[in-house]
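Hi, does anyone understand the following?
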Amino acid sequence: MNLYTSPSSEPAGQMVERIDVKSAHPPKKAGEPLYEKRKKIFPKRAEGQFRRFKWLVMLVTLGIYYLTPWIRWDRGPFAPDQAVLVDLATRRFYFFFIEIWPQEFFFVAGLLVMAGFGLFLVTSAVGRAWCGYTCPQTVWVDLFLAVERFFEGDRNARMKLDAAPWTFDKIGKRVAKHSTWIIIAVATGGAWIFYFADAPSLAFDFITGNAAPVAYSTVAILTATTYVLGGLMREQVCIYMCPWPRIQAAMLDENSLVVTYNDWRGEPRTRGAKKAAAAGLPVGDCVDCNACVAVCPMGIDIRDGQQLACITCALCIDACDSVMDKIGKPRGLIAYATLNEYEVNMALATGGGMTTIDPTRVRNPDGSFIDKVRHFDWKIILRPRTLLYFGVWTAVGLGLIYALLSRDRLEINVLHDRNPQFVLESDGSIRNGYTVRLLNMIPEPRTILISMDGLPEATMKITGVSDVPGRLFAVQAEPDKALALKVFVTLPKDAISDEAKDFHFIAEDRSSHEKDVHGAVFNAPEGRHPGGRK
C-alpha cells in the first residue's frame, strides 16, 4: 500500500490530495465469512465543527469521571463530605444534597428508566449520537488515539512506523505510547473505586498498601479492560462485542438523522471533473479523494451506504466539507440526513428511478440546487415518536422530582409480636408487644416523640426509655440511622372487648414539623387479628 497521497488531475487551485486507503469493512459478498482477520486502522486527524464538538464532549465527560469523587459537599459532622458517594458500608447513596436509602431504590430505577427513554429519544432523532460522541468506548478510544498521534505522528507517519523494522526510535515511541496508555488505564480504574469510599483517604491507603484487597483487584481489572478495549481492540469492540448497534436499528425510522453520503449529488465520482465535463460526461461532486475513509476511526467507507460499523461520529463530514471548500462546491456531500430526504433527492437525480444518477437533474445552470431538492428542516425532530419519548422521559423525571421533594425524612414501622399475640397479666389487663423501628434519615441527631392515637384507655412502655406507663415519650434518634424500640401496650381489664382494635403509633419531630403514622392492631383473647397495617 502506498503510504503517501497522490494529487488529483484537477488544475492548480483545485488540487485535492487522494489518500490511498480502502475500507477496512467493505460490504460482504455472498459466501464470504462474517469474521475476518483484523486490518489495522490508522485514522487521520480530522478538523472541523464535529471534531471540535467531540473534543469538547471528551473534555467534559472525562472531567466529570475523574474529578467528581474529589468534590466536597458539607453535610454536617455526622455524614460524609464527599459530593458523590456510594457508601456500601451504611447502604447509602449520596449525590450532593440528595441521600438515597435502600428502601428508596425506586429513585435509581427511575433514573434508569429515564436513561433508557433518553437513549430512545436521541436515537430516533439523531441516530447513533450516543455511540459517536458519549459512549465510554468512543471517548477512551479518542483519548488513546490522541496519545498515539502525539508520540507517533499522524496517519502516514504511523503507517510508516508500523511497517518499519524495530529500531531504538520505534521501540522508544511504542514504549512511551503504551506506558501512557497504561497510566490512563490505571487512572480510570483508580477513579472508579473513589466513588465507593472517601477519595483522599482511600488514595492514601491505596498508595501506602493499606487499602482493602478488593480495591486493588478492582483497579487491576479496570486497568486491563481499559487498556485492551480502548488501546488494542478499539473498533472491534463496537463491531463484535457491543449489542447496541443491533438493537438501535429498530429505533430508527425514515425521519431519523443519520450520517449519509448523498450520492444523488456525488455520483458519478471522478478525479478529473473538468476533463469529464469537457467530454460531455456527467460529473458528480465527489472527487474520490478518500478523505472520508482516512479519518474514520472505524475504517469504513461511508459511500458504501449505512453500515453496522458506522458510529455516526461525523468526522467524515468534516473531512468532506474541507474538500468541498477547496474545490468550491457547497458543503453537505456527506451530511446528517433523513431517509425521506435522501429518497426524494435520489428520485430527482434518477428521474424517479428510471435512469442512473445524473447530477444535472438537481442543479440549476449556475450550479445551485433546484428548489425541489430537500434540505434538513429541524422541525422533523418534532414528530409523534420523539414527542412520545420526550413526554415519557419528562413525566418520569417530574415524578422523581416530586417524590424527592415530598418524601419524609422521618419514618416509623411497626411489627406486632407473633408469639405470643398477647399476654394476660395478673390484674386481668392485656398486654401486646410491638417492635417499633424509627428511621432518622437526616445526618443530624434529633428528638422524636412517640405517641399513640386510639385506644384511649391504653398505656405503653418503651424498654430502655421509661418504665413509667404513658402515651407520649421522647426518644433520641442518632443521625442517619435506624433505631429499633421494644414497645408494650397495655389495656385495662374493664376496657377489653372480644374484638381486635385498631390504633396508630405516631412519630413526630416538632422542630422540623415532620410526622409519620403507622397503624397497628391490639389483640385480645377473643379477637385475634394479623399484624399491623400502614
Confidence is low (pLDDT under 50) at residues 1-9, 527-534. The longest strand covers residues 430-440. Residues 448 and 475 are 5 Å apart (CA to CA). The two ends are 76 Å apart (CA to CA).
